[in-house]
Specification:
The chain is mostly helical. Helices cover 71% and strands 0% of the residues. It has helices spanning 2-71, 75-79, 85-93, 102-106, 112-131, 143-156, 158-161, 171-174.
Length: 185
């Protein structure tokens, strides 16, 4: 009888231990679920803050864009870079084109999208060359720049250009003083 009692006692103790372990496990699972829920909620809140911050930055950039485009289109801005001193001085003291800005000649003006895209491309290229100190001693117009400048000359002086053949010549072949004393080839 004693052995049956011992067996039953051991069995009840084992059942109690299993119940206790199960309760601890459930509590642990519940705690893990609460912790996972907290992490999920924190991730959602963080994502919302990131999205809200990104939206604010985009709205701010959109609001500032017209101002930045206007400021960076002035000859004073273009001339603020010390590698452009000679070009700026030549433009400033040359009476013929002093009433127009750099972007009137140096950026495509056929439509606003093309103008802004090339403003960004050329601006980033200029920033790269300036801050890496890779600006060449003699600034030469790229093939794209020569095509753009030529198109803008023709756009502004179309009545005059209509009387001459420009198929094989560039504007600066005759009007060298108009290209800032910089070699354009």
């Amino acid at each position: 009888m004693n052995s049956v009692r011992t067996i039953l006692s051991n069995l009840f103790q084992a059942i109690a231990r299993v119940r206790s372990a199960a309760a601890d496990g459930l509590a642990s699972l519940a705690e893990r679920d609460r912790s996972a829920s907290r992490r999920r909620a924190l991730r959602i809140i963080t994502n919302r803050y990131v999205l809200a911050s990104l939206a604010l930055v985009l709205v701010g950039m959109g609001a500032a864009a017209p101002f930045l485009v206007r400021i960076t289109s002035t000859p004073g801005f273009c001339g603020s870079c010390h590698v452009m001193d000679d070009q700026y001085e030549h433009w400033f003291y040359d009476g013929k084109h002093r009433m127009i800005s750099c972007v009137d000649c140096h950026l495509p003006n056929n439509n606003i999208v093309n103008h802004l895209v090339w403003k960004g491309i050329d601006g980033m290229k200029d920033v790269f060359f300036f801050y890496t100190r890779l600006t060449p001693e003699i600034i030469r117009a790229s093939s794209h720049a020569r095509r753009t400048i030529r198109a803008n000359c023709v756009r502004c002086h179309d009545e005059m250009v209509s009387r001459v053949s420009i198929d094989t010549m560039q504007c600066w072949d005759c009007h060298r003083a108009r290209n800032h004393q910089v070699v354009a080839q």
